Amino acid sequence: MPRHFKFVVAFTLAALIVKNLAACQSNRAVPANLGPRASYEIVAVYPHDPSAYTQGLVWHNNTFIESTGLYGSSSLRVVEPETGEVRQLLPLEPRYFGEGLALLNNKLYQLTWREATGFVYDLHTLELLNTWQYPTEGWGITTDGTNLVMSDGSDTIYFIDPESFETVREIRVTLDGNPLSAINELEWIEGAIFANIYLTDNIARIDPQTGKVLSMLNMSGLRPAANQPKAGEVLNGIAYDPSSQRLFVTGKFWDVLYEIRLINSPTPIKATQQ
Question: Which CA distances in Å does 205 have to 43, 135, 238, 239, 240?
Fold first, then answer.
């Protein structure tokens, strides 16, 4: 094995260990009582690249746009849902660890983990249009249609102006009155924030005004039977198609991507306005 390849592998593994340990520390603040529960049913199963360390997932124009992580293999990619084929691939420089992804006003916003750098791309060409800096780690990002909505692995979610990149406001996520940390990948769905809780099989549905968890969705039954994820290969990646109210989820290194439907939710998804 070439020396430079050994270095990249060792550096990537070290970074993952650090992030996992940090998340485990954060998870100590997670209350034992997970509050109101929602359940789901599987609607469809799609192929997913098992080499993709999924960090962010967006649905647009019948395609998935995905951000992947790890030093040396982070990317931005456009994926065909039915086949899992990567139509466009934009590798990040090896010094960047790709994180969350959001789409707003025909621009893609991609975070990096500890590099404190965000990238802005043209939706159609993936041309890099701009970069910005932020004072925290970058984990998940979505949009409420006006602002970017960003997490940093703590219990704080930031609302950020997409032009100035100034923080407009913040909320603290709570579950039964207790802080809920390790907030990771985000998706805005019918007026609520859906958030992966890192290193767990849980997705929290969060009130964007108060930060209160409205319901918790346990997705442990989705772990692919043919490719059982290891410790760090957890649920991560949420996308939503508002035109048909389709909800998609996957995980890091998972070989499948699921379309699911929420059922028996204490706070169900509202009907899309036509």
Answer: 20, 26, 12, 14, 14
| Cβ atoms of residues 249 and 59 within 8 Å | no
User: Is the Cα torsion angle 82, 54, 4, 112 positive or negative in sign?
Assistant: positive
Residues 210, 260: Cα–Cα separation, whole Å? 27
Q: At residue 46, what are phi and psi to the nearest 5 degrees?
A: -120, 155
Q: Rounded distance, CA 36 to CA 214, Å? A: 7
Query: Tens digits of per-residue pLDDT, 195-251?
Result: 999 998 899 999 999 999 999 998 888 876 546 566 668 899 999 999 988 999 999
Give burial (CB, 10 Å; 0-12/13-18/19+) of 85. exposed
Contacts of residue 152, Cβ cutoff 8 Å, sequence gap at least 6: 136, 137, 138, 139, 158
Domain positions in the chain: 3-263
Pairing of strands 235-241, 246-251: antiparallel
Q: What is the CATH number of domain 3-263?
A: 2.40.128.630
CA distances from 136 to 59, 208, 237 (A): 26, 20, 21
How far apart are the C-alpha atoms of 185 and 150, rounded to whole Å? 9
CA distances from 243 to 62, 95, 246 (A): 11, 37, 8
Report residue 8 as tokens. 């990249």
- Sign of CA pseudo-dihedral 21, 27, 32, 36: negative
- Which of 189, 194, 188, 200 minimizes the C-alpha distance to 173? 194
Tens digit of pLDDT for each residue in 127-172? Answer: 999 999 999 999 999 999 999 999 999 999 999 999 999 999 999 9
3-state secondary structure of 177: coil
270 neighbors 190 (Cβ within 8 angstroms)? yes
